[in-house]
Amino acid sequence: MEEFGVGLGRRLRAGDLVVLTGPLGAGKTTLSRGIGEGLGVRGPISSPTFVLARTHPSLTDGPPLVHVDAYRLGSPAELDDLDLDYEAAVVLVEWGAGMVDGISDSMLEIRIDRAADDTRSVELEGTGPRWAEGVLRSGGPGISSPGASASTTG
Predict the structure, then answer these.
(1) In a 3-state reduction of DSSP, which class is residue 101?
(2) What is the pLDDT of residues 80-108, one digit of tens each?
């Protein structure tokens, strides 16, 4: 999961909105750690459950990562109350399904499922002009086209 995140993080840019969904223990935070490493941001990346959102500044000339945990939020209005800078950062929202609609004209949704044997399946769905550019088609470790599925262990 982390290696997949590193590859994805290297392709993200300011203004990207990424939504992670999946059950508890699926690997959302592990994927987030990899994305942070790929972006070159200050860590450690951990679940921001109790602070709701944490900004990780770039250690390079890239964008910061705003890591949001929407699990305890009751509505999209509560997410809006956080006053996040969606334009200047990569915004990654765990538990964000149904919470970010209308925030951006482009969004990458990553759905993670965990099987009983500890394998994970990952499905990516990009919507909007940003993901129509074929950003993920160039390949790399664990990277595939939006709408494609992949599996990994651990």
Answers:
(1) coil
(2) 888 888 899 999 999 888 888 888 889 99
